[in-house]
Every structure is written in structure tokens, then in C-alpha cells.
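pinned: reference chain
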Amino acid sequence: MKTTPLSRRTFLRGAVGGTAVALALPTLEAMLGARGAEAASTGPIFGIFFWGGGLPWHDGHGAPQAGHPDLWTPATTGKDYTPSELLAPLAPYQPSLVTGLTPHTEVPDLPAGQSDGHMRGFMVSMTGDRIRPEGFDHPSHTLTALRPTLDQYVAKHPNFYGPEIPRFRSLVLGASTARFHDYGHWNAISYNGPDDLNPPILDPGQLYDLLFGVAADTAGMKRRALLLDAVLEDAKSLSGRVGAADKQRIEAHLEHLHTVKNRLEFSGESCAPPGKPAPNDELVAKTDIMGSLLASALACNMTRVFSFMLSSPATTHVFGNLGVPNDFHTTVHEGAWEHARAGILYQMQAFAAFLGRLQAVVEPTGGTLLDRALVFGLSEYGEGYQHSVAEMPCVLAGGAHGKIRRNVHVRDPGGNYSKAHVTMLRGVGLETPSFGWNGGQTSEAFGDILV
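pinned: its C-alpha cells
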């Protein structure tokens, strides 16, 4: 069947109460050509899932933190390890992980304070490099990166997307609104480079509008669901002008939007602009909704790179429903180990809800979005009590099109964190002779995980 070429800016159009509305389409073969569409719909997905607060401290973090069990490190290594208590929520998604990692970058003497795990651990795990010494001020917690974070490194790598760039190179999302400071690094985890942060989208309604709604003068519409009804006739007309594969994509797109819209409409406050940090039960629900919207964007080929900041560095999120009386940053500094355990376990439950949304989307070619994805799960340091950068978490969820072995535990005490970076970058198809800077560079990968 001969199809009509379409602009990438094609929208489904209609009217609601005399007001013109438009709804974005997924990327179609008619927009890219068959070869470009195949690459967009089958290429690897790379994402980051970040939580603040590290892990509960234990003997492996040093003498001041000793006397508590390690609830993170599985007792066994290799394939099909037995998950630990904190990893149990993630077990249905068979994540691989590396334990024992730490930064190997140099720490300059001046300005003082660059060894603080809040800053050093974050920068090395997210960028492979140390903090930028110029402009660093430890007393005021002012800092920036020397280079892009891993999400932006992948999104802007010339060999990741190739010539066919999707609608969004990357999506930068988040959940908790609690912040240690209202400036700089404490508000975002995604950097383009020095002093150039990407603030996360925190509101599901805003994310929905960005992804799917392009409307003029729609303030009077009571429900966004009217958009779907308004453009159905245009969708039917367009379906008759494209090939069978594109027709299926349009129909699947509309069906998924119906599902998402229903969830948004019945979720009440979860779509309202957030004010105070959400109660802990709402944090998981919000993560679930944001994950659903992201899954739709990935399935529609709007992007293949994302970052999700569940809670910010040095998070002050209050896990009140768990009986934790203080914000989480205060909690860990007070040495409240049981409360720290509860807060981290709950964040792992949110991580599981997020992965579940990717696992739930079955693709036309078979498999799921999670099978195609590599989701890098991490925090800013090993633990928040003394800011140790020993035993930093490193989760690799998803199969990256079979390039990452799933459900494998590798133990590497004192290992270079950038060895995980090399593993992930090669896993998503990027040639990486080495990665890391200023003493942290390595050409090694974890062969037990990388296929």
C-alpha cells in the first residue's frame, strides 16, 4: 500500500465547544520512513532512577556506622541470587546489581570539603567525574558538575539516536518536592554541563500536557478526556491514509491515552500541582502515574532517554505514614537506623511501581519496554549518617535488548564505580573504550552482566 508522507509535527485535530484542539501523535513510519521508524521503535532505552538518602548504614561503611546488618547486599552472588530485604520489592523485575562500588576519582585539597559524600558520591555516580573545584563552597553546599550526567551523555551521544532524533532527546521527571536547599544541585539530578541543570517535571498533569496535549484556549474544558472525543474523526481519517503498521500505532496510542486519562481523572490530587511534600503513600501513587505516562511516551517513540528523581539529593521528604517524625535528612543524621530502613524500603517500593509500568507495556514486536530498557538505579552515597561513599548502590534493571544479563549479582568491594558506567554504555550500544576522569577512568566492564 502506498502511504502519504507525514510531517513529524502532524497532530490529530478537532474542536471542543468551538475551541480548536490538537493531540500529539506517536512517531510513525510515514514520518520517518520504514528504516527510521524501525530504529525508533526497537532501539534501546536508557533511564536513571534516583533516590535520596543512600542505604541504611552497616559495618561495610566504616567503624562509626558499624553494628547494624547489611539489608542491601544479597547473601549470594552470580545468576539468580536471593534478594535481600531491601531488594525484595524489585525482585519481580529481576534486576542485576553490583555491590561494593565506590568513587575512584581524586579529591583536591582545596577548596576543602570535596570529599563529602553528598557531593562526591553523587557526581561520580552520575557523571564519572569529581565535583568542579572552581566555585565549590562546602559551608553553603554550592557545587556543580564538570560534565553532563549520564542521561544527557547518552541522549546527546551522536551514535545513540543517529540522524533520526525523536520529539524529546530526553525527559527529566521527578516525584517528591522536598528540598534540602532551594538552589542549585539540590533541585535536580540532570546536568547538561557546569551550572546547567535540567529541572524535573514533577506534576503528572503538566507531563501529560507536554506529551499529549497541544491545545489553544482550553481553560474552559472540564476534563482533558474531551480531547480524545474531539479528535477521533481526524484519527479515523488519518488511519485510512497510512500503512497497516502506522494504523496499529495510532489505535494503540489512542487506547493507551484512554487508559491514562481515566487514571488521571480518578486520581484526584495526584494530578494537582504539588505543594508540600506528598505523604509517603501518595509518593508511590504519584510515581506510578508518572511511570505510566513515561511508559506511554516510550511506547510512542517520543524519546528513549529519561531520568526520574524520586527524591532529591539530601532529601528532606517526610515519611510520616511510616511513623518517621522528621524529614529524612535529619533522620539519617540523628542515627535513626530503623527509620532510615523504613524510608529506603518505601523508596524501593516506589522504584518497583515504576519498573512495573515499563514491564506492563507489551510491544508489537514482542517483549516489554523493560526488556528493551536499561534503568540505572542509584543514590548519592552509600549511607547518609556519615556520608560514606563505600558500598554505593548500583542497580541495573531491564535487559537492554538482551545486552544486559538479568538477575545477576556481582560483588566488587572497593570497585571503581565507573566500571558500571562502561557496562551500561556498552549495553545500550555505545562504543566506550573507557569512561571516567580525574583518576576514575577505566576501560573495564562487568563481564558477568554485559553480554
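why pinned: Residues 337-360 form the longest helix (24 residues). The chain has two domains: 47-211+281-428, 214-272.
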